[in-house]
């Protein structure tokens, strides 16, 4: 991105929705002679696909200058947000961060650092924290592997979307190298994808049938099963 370019003058008041993701504040700064951004600041919100009224506030900050060792830091903060955190007066306010008395942005004490880079050291979060994010979004845990949840949170937080020079290291050391897929999960390339597509078609056909027939004549449909199949 060019220095803090916005597509519209009122970008702070507009929301971009894509499959439950709300982009609250995207902003990137890059040097003129380089394609990689020096600084990225992004705030997003990921809503539950089941309409549970829950969401995750995600704040991604990145700063890197290759010739200065003290200018190499990044954080991906995630705050679990329920219906009580909704603020109609400030709908774009992220719960993951706050401003101190000097106006400096600070992470909320309840925010989780999913990715943290300080100098040459990059660390990630725990499987327990990822399971809590899964429960917040889907109303249960154990349906998706920790790797899937990490990928969901990281990509919803726009990590790697700006061609950052260290994007690969952030994602690998933050979780891609540490977490694994479930045995029956697909990565979109495996042979199980064909079976998943067939099962998805059958479930969607049952939904269409349910809308055309009386409820007592149709077997109960597990909507989460269909949606989680899409998540795989």
What does this structure look like?
Residues 1-19 and 215-224 have low confidence and may be disordered. This protein is an alpha+beta fold and 232 residues long. It is globular, with a radius of gyration of 20 Å. A hairpin with a 7-residue loop joins β4 and β5 (72-81). It contains five helices and nine strands, in the order βββββββββααααα. It is 27% helix and 26% strand. The strands form two sheets. The chain has a seven-stranded antiparallel sheet with strand order 1-2-3-4-5-8-9, with helices on one face. Strands 6-7 form a two-stranded antiparallel sheet. It has two domains: 11-176, no CATH class; 192-231, no CATH class.
Characteristics:
232 residues; alpha+beta; 2 domains; seven-stranded antiparallel sheet; 5 helices; 26% strand; globular; disordered N terminus
What distance lies between the first and last C-alpha atoms, to the nearest angstrom? Answer: 31 Å
Mean pLDDT: 80
Low-pLDDT ranges? 1-19, 215-224
Profile the largest sheet: 7 strands, antiparallel
Helix count, DSSP H or I runs of 4 or more residues: 5
Biggest β-sheet: strands ordered side by side in the sheet: 1-2-3-4-5-8-9
Helix content: 25-40%
How many strand units?
A: 9
